[in-house]
Amino acid sequence: MNSTIETNFLNVKEVSVFLKLSALTVYKYISKKKIKAIHFGGRYLINKSSLNKFIEERKSNKTS
Fold it and tell me: How many CA atoms lie less than 13 Å away from 64 in the CB half-sphere?
């Protein structure tokens, strides 16, 4: 039996690796509410859809 749980959330380290940014930069984006995150169990979790929205907003700002 496979007991893995799929999640729609990423932690700060996973986001920093994905965006090729430092974890400190991700924390700054969270504190400035540029990336929406929830604080749970002493750490921040970022919903994948919120991360996609953040990326799309940055793409449309570049093309404007």
Answer: 6
Domain boundaries, the chain: 9-63
Burial 5-27 (b: 16+ CB within 10 A, else e): eeeeebebebbbeebeeeeeebb
Report the top-level CATH class of 9-63.
mainly alpha
Contact predicate 61/30, CB 8 Å: no
Tell me the pTM: 0.82
- Closest-CA residue to 40 (of 12, 14, 61): 12
Which tens digit of pLDDT belongs to each residue from 12-54?
999 999 999 999 999 999 999 999 999 999 999 999 999 999 9
Residues whose CB is less than 8 angstroms from the CB of residue 30 and which lie 6 or more positions away in sequence, other chains included: 12, 37, 44, 46
